[in-house]
Design a protein that fits this description.
heterodimer, A: about 270 residues, seven-stranded mixed β-sheet, 10 strands, globular, B: about 190 residues, alpha/beta, seven-stranded parallel β-sheet, two-stranded antiparallel ribbon, about 20% strand
Amino acid sequence: MDKILADIEIEVILNDVYQLYGYDFSEYAKASLTRRINRLYSMDRFTSVTDFLYRIRTDENYIRRFVEEITVNVTEMFRDISFFSCLRKEVIPILSTYPHIRIWHAGCSSGEEAFSMAILLKEAGLLHKSIIYATDINPDVIHSAAKGIFHTAKMKLYSENYIASGGTKEFSSYYTANYDRTVFSQELKDKIVFATHNLVSDRSFNEFQLILCRNVMIYFEKELQDKVLTTFKDSLEQLGFLALGSKETLRFSPIVTSYKIFSYKDRIWRKNI
Amino acid sequence: MEKEHLSKKLKLLMIGGSAGALNVLMQIIPHLKKDLSFPIVIILHRKADSESSLEYLLDMVASLPVKEIEDKEKMLAGKIYLVPADYHLLIEKNGLFSLDASEKIHYCRPAIDVTLESAAAVFPGEVAALILSGANGDGTAGAQAVKATGGIVWVQSPDSASIDYMPQYVIDHSDVDRILEIEDMAKAINELL
């Protein structure tokens, strides 16, 4: 991809987005952010930064597209088989001892992982006493996730992931397929609270026994990662679990001393007492 | 041709490849000197669900430590870093690695272009790239970016590649400093400064 916009132009764009709409991308990892902005600029066929800025400043609908395209929304159900197997076999049995289970999917994107979690909890007989909070910066993505509607074409892969990670039920019993749209059951949806939440600017809103934030902080600079990790630490009960993406680690953060490794392979840590 | 040395000290060597490249790497890395003054990043196309066994395979034959990259790891001279399957690798100005799970490029994640372009942007004139065997046009845009910013681009000689498409594509579309036979690669890398 050609480098289309100069660093200074990108700074002006980000400053406008912050001033006008309150989205603060200043501590996002620059290399990736620059790529995303240049990608959007060429995808939407802008020919000058002036046009791009004018659109951002004047079109409130365009800012929604901007946020959706700048943030990466790549997710699937039961992605990382080993991780979901560890959740099922090792983490959930520990969670089962609590009277109420509160779980936070931070940066849940279109919600596939939250629904995967609801299925795990249901199969462990724990769904009735659980609440899953699924949050994302992007209101449009949250709106669609809350409907629990996914592309039918993806169900084959999700079903394979489900079985490979230890699922034994009929995966199709959790949804109703209607041509190209598949709707997950109301029972699962009832236990998931979808809400917008910006990890950059919003604080914690509850105490949890498990926080999942997988492949979200890779787009943040290290300083912002450390800040968000502090939010997570403050939002976890003692002995609560933190789950990150398969190539993310606490090793490079001072917060590491607040946790013990639960499974390094599956990137799960447990908060100290 | 034969532009062996950069005006500035080399920050990073990137080796990109696809089908047929692993075999070449296995022949190069046992012969690298232990005190290389720069890190090497390997961007190899492979299946999304690959376990990290490639790390062990390369580590067994390498004289330098081989490590699969974790997000926000700091790159260090004298180490060989492997980009994990299913992630793109970007380089930050402060020398940290950033992983990225966004859309595939050329049907690939990791894509060689992503890393080369990113490194060329943050370290202009201070990076080198070596493109090996492969059946894909990935690597060419990255090579162009490296050349445009004053870096070094080498390619495996298409005659020696199991699949010549990738190195040939770079030669046809970008300036190239050297075309290397497999047996000359380790020596060339060891002489980089």
